[in-house]
Design brief:
- With 457 residues, this protein is of the alpha+beta class.
- Among the domains are: 4-37 and 91-250, Nucleoside Triphosphate Pyrophosphohydrolase; 258-275 and 330-435, EvaA sugar 2,3-dehydratase subunit (Nucleoside Triphosphate Pyrophosphohydrolase, Alpha-Beta Complex).
- It is 20% helix and 34% strand.
- Strands 6, 7, 8, 9, 10, 12 and 13 form a seven-stranded mixed sheet that branches. Strands 19, 20, 21, 22, 23, 24 and 25 form a seven-stranded mixed sheet that branches.
- It comes from Amycolatopsis sp. SANK 60206.
- Residues 28-224, 264-456 form the dTDP-4-dehydro-6-deoxy-alpha-D-glucopyranose 2,3-dehydratase domain.
- Pfam families: Hexose_dehydrat.
Length: 457
Amino acid sequence: MLTDADHAAEFLTSSRTPGSAETPAPDDFLEKRTASYSYNVEEVPLDSLPNWRLGDRLTHASGRFFSIEGMAIRTDFGPTAEWCQPIIVQPEIGILGIIVRRIHGVRHFLMQAKMEPGNSDLVQYAATVQATPSNYQRVHGGRPTPYLDYFLNNAGRRIVFDQLLSEHASWYLHKRNRNMIIEIPETEDIAVGDDFTWLTLGQLRRQLIRGSRVNMNARTVLSGVSYATNEDPDSYGDLPDEFGRQVAESHRAGRSEADVSAAMTWLIDRKAEFSLRVRPIDLVDLDGWVYGTDCIRHRENRYFRIVGLSVSAASREVGTWSQPMLEPAGRHVVALICQRRSGVLQFLVQAAIQPGLTDRMELAPTVQLTSEPENRPPLAEYLEAPESWIRLNASQSEDGGRFLRADTTHVVIEVPEDHAVEAPDNYRWMTLGLLNRLIRSGYYVNVEARSLLACLL
C-alpha cells in the first residue's frame, strides 16, 4: 500500500516529465487561443457602469458578485497606526480547481487559457475551474462553467488538495476561495474543450519562470501540491540545477507534527502580540480619498484607485460586461530570502497583519511591497542583492478579474551560508515542507507567499 510520501514522490517525478507528444507546446497553445478571439477593455466612469450603483457603497443591482466599500483601520503593527481605504467585499467562496490525470503514466494538469480584463497579458493559464457562486449559478445569464461538476460532486475521486485559503488581504475584506486538486483515473473519459490543455508540472514551472503566463488563481492552487518524499534526491528527475535539488530537499524537511505545532504556536503568539480593529465607513467619508463619479482615488494618487471597465471577450461565459476594478499604483514586489541552514534550504517569512485577513495575521514573504512606502520595510535592502544571489526574478499578474494592471515582481534571493541575516522577532526561518504543511492546514500562509512558493515548483 502506498503511503502519502510514496504518492508525493510519484506525483513529483511524473509531473516533472516533459509533455506528451499529443499535447501542444504551452507557448503555441496560449498564443493560438489569444489570437482566436477578439478582446476589448476600456476604462469608463464609475457612474456609467450598467447595473452598478454608486452611493455610500458601490454595489451591483443584483446584490451579488462583489461591492466596493469603505473601511477604517487601527493597528499597532507596522509604521502606520491608522488609515482609511476602499476595499473589495466579496463574501462568496469561489472554487479554484485543477483536474489531474495520467497520460501514458505521467500526471498532467488540465489548464485553461483564460482572458481576464485586468491582466497586462490578457490571456494566461488558469485553473480548470475558476468561478464564484454568482458565476457558476449564472446570475450574469452566461454560459455554464465547464468541468464544474468535478468539484461540486467529487465522490469517488482522489482529492489531492482541498482547502479554504485567503486572498489579497490589503485589497479584499475576508475574501477566501476553495483551492482544490482532483485526480481522475487515467481510464476516465474526459472531453477537452478548445480553451483547455494538459500540462505537466515541468511545463508549468517553465511558464512560471517566464512570468505573466500562469494567473494568480492557478498559482495559489499549485502552491498546495506536496513533494514530500524520503527517497534519494535522484528520484526527483529533471531538476534544473543544484538550487532545484536544494528546493526538493527543503520540501522533504520540517514536515513533522512537532514542526507544524511549533510553527502554529509561534504564529498564535504573534497574533496575541498585535491588535487590529476594522470598521466599515461610507465611501464618501474616507479621509484622504477623493470620491468622484469617474473614479475613487487617493488624494496624492498613491496606493490605488477604483475605476470602471467596459469589457468584451468572446471566450468568456458572458461576451460583454462592465465592472469596477482596483488599479494599484507604485512599485509592487514580493521577495523571499532563503539560506542553507543546518544543511537544509530554509526560507525567511514574516508574521504580518493585513486588514482584510479573516484572522488578522498570516505568514507573508520576507519583503512585501504593495505600494511605494514612506518607510522601507525590514530587509528591503536585499532587493538590491548581487545578481549571483538571485534565483527567481519574474513579473506575475495578480487577480485579473478584480485588479487592473496589478503586476508584481516575484524575487527569490539565496544568501550565502556564512551571511548573517538580522531579522525582527516577527520573522522565522521555515523549510518548504513546513510551509506546505501550513498551506494545507488553512489560514496560515498569505496569497503573496503562496504565489512565490508556486514559482518554486
